[in-house]
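As promised in the previous annual report, we have extended the structural survey to additional targets. Below is the entry for SGF29 factor.
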Amino acid sequence: SVLRRALDKIAEIKSLLEERRIAAKIAGIYSEAEPPRKTMRRGVLMTLLQQSAMTLPLWIGKPGEKPPPLCGAVPAAGDYVAKPGDKVAARVKALEGDEQWILAEVVSYSHAANKYEVDDIDEEGKERHTLSRRRIIPLPQWKTNPETDPEALFHKDQLVLALYPQTTCFYRALIHAPPQR
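The corresponding structure token record, generated without further manual editing, is:
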């Protein structure tokens, strides 16, 4: 359908922009339009994260087609490897020795070591972590439509990770009610 092609094109453009940003970050090259990023204020980071979540592409399949992995509540396949630039929940050791789940961005994955390198998305605590696959949960790459794909929604009383307000740290939570539309 026309809608599906348009959404695919939007996702492709967003992916290309993200690839360019990552390549520039790795190479240390910045264009005039995008100077090196300085540490941003917490409010700006929170706004950007909200915008990123709101602009996650909507998955629209053909009639009878099941939502793909990483669409809403549909988990990634067991052998899935997140790509550089993908957002993930990462379980890291905090300074006090406790463990916590943080919002992170994949830098690389080593198939030989079976480990990810991820950056803490919060620039105040900017750290690079090397973590095994079991300490990484890939985040959804598509939103699901509750009217056409209710099976891809988190259900009442399902355990999830949710972000503490105004932070990039996750906490365990239970779903009270799935979205209605």
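The helical segments are 2-27, 42-54. The CA atoms of residues 87 and 105 lie 5 Å apart. These points will be discussed at the next consortium meeting with the crystallography subgroup.
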